[in-house]
Amino acid sequence: MASYEFLAGSYDALTQDVNYPRWADYIEGHFARLKRPVHTVLDLACGTGSLTRELGERGYQLTGVDLSTEMLSLAEEKCRDLPVRPRFFCQAMENLRLPERVDACVCCLDSVNYVLRPQKLQRTFRRVWEALEPGGLFLFDADTPEKLEAMDGQVFLDETEEEFCVWRGEYSPRRRVCSFWMDIFRKEETLWRRGEELHQEYAYTMAELESYLKEAGFVKIKQYGELKRRAPQPGEQRVFFAARKEE
How many CB atoms lie within 10 A of CB 156? Predict the structure, then answer.
């Protein structure tokens, strides 16, 4: 049961609550704190390209990478009319390879949790380090173990006039994985189509993520609360990491 094959067509409608301009504002705030200008940005796990487009409209030269061909097709269409069209590549994060280095890499909306093996995430961080220019920034967020553990047994519902999605969470303490079983219904003309998907996230601790960054060679590693400029607080649901490649 592959992720995002069916969901891709409903993803934007079901995630209208994501405030991409606010996310872009937060990202630009981190860019502004660098001593070097940011021109080229990698949007790792770019999905349907909503954040890619938002940053592209602000004048950055974007590269989008995602494993889902369905999501990338939507991203290319969404960004087609930008003055400088982003480049898109279909790659697994742990196999990241770009033609040129970039000034910054962002990986948003808990995409790192989708890497279910720690060894693969360690490799991902090394590949990001290699993809950055000296002094470049790596900014990403992760769901905390507390958030994923609390989703065990929970049922959620998202709906619009043409989409209906019910999903339930199941957390395995032994595997440290939260599985999301999704039933998606999408109206196409006069008929409704049904799709099923399984999404899974690994519960990395913040200490583990910081250690992986250090192992990859990153320096000046800092943690922040969700879209905040302060340190994470107890019970935080999402934590941001900002790390630098040494100049």
Answer: 12
